Amino acid sequence: MDFSVPFKICSSGLAAQRARMDVITSNLANVGTTRTPEGGPYKRKEVVLGSENAVTEFSDRLQGVLQTVEVKEIAEDKNGVKLIYDPSHPDADEKGFVAMPNVNVVLEMAEMINVNRSYEACATAFDATKNMALKAIDLGK
After folding, report:
1. I need a surface site. Which of 17, 27, 80, 119 has the fewest CB within 10 A?
2. 25 CB neighbour count, 10 Å cutoff
3. What would the pLDDT profile of 9-39 be if each residue is shown by its tens digit?
4. DSSP assignment string, the chain
């Protein structure tokens, strides 16, 4: 049996969860950033995930059922920004409103828990595959 396919699937899941965690960390770090190099406030980012066929001889027999996950892009949230009334802020407009990032800390923390559990599930699957491979080697002795 070829154990490279399950390892490839697990590692793609680990990489995707790592990318999600990096984006969540960036969102949380910029929750109060009102001025970016591009101009305007920081815009919340989201990871767009997709799938890719895990192409092997075995998966050809399953007609594309085995798939890996991949990061398609990191996109900005389309919800815009929050306007907060704070006339003393240096970035306030003439009406006293400041454009703040649309990052919800509670939502980001919930996503962080979700990512952590998904990462743990991928690591557990990877470890189970490794143990099966080691048992198969032991059977061959």
Report:
1. 80
2. 12
3. 899 999 999 999 999 999 999 998 988 888 8
4. --THHHHHHHHHHHHHHHHHHHHHHHHHHTTT----TTSSS---EEEEEEEEE--SHHHHHTTS--EEEEEEEEEE-TT--EEEE-TTSTT--TTSEEEE----HHHHHHHHHHHHHHHHHHHHHHHHHHHHHHHHHHHT-
CA distance 132 to 121: 16
Task: In whole angstroms, give the CA distance from residue 96 to residue 84.
Answer: 8
Yes or no: say if 71 and 49 are a contact pair by the CB < 8 Å rule.
yes
Token digits for 7? 């390892």
The full set of domain ranges for the chain reads 4-139
φ/ψ of residue 94, rounded to 5: -65, -20
Strand-pair category, 67-76 with 45-53: antiparallel
pTM of the model: 0.80
Angle at 52 between CA 49 and CA 56, to 5 degrees: 150
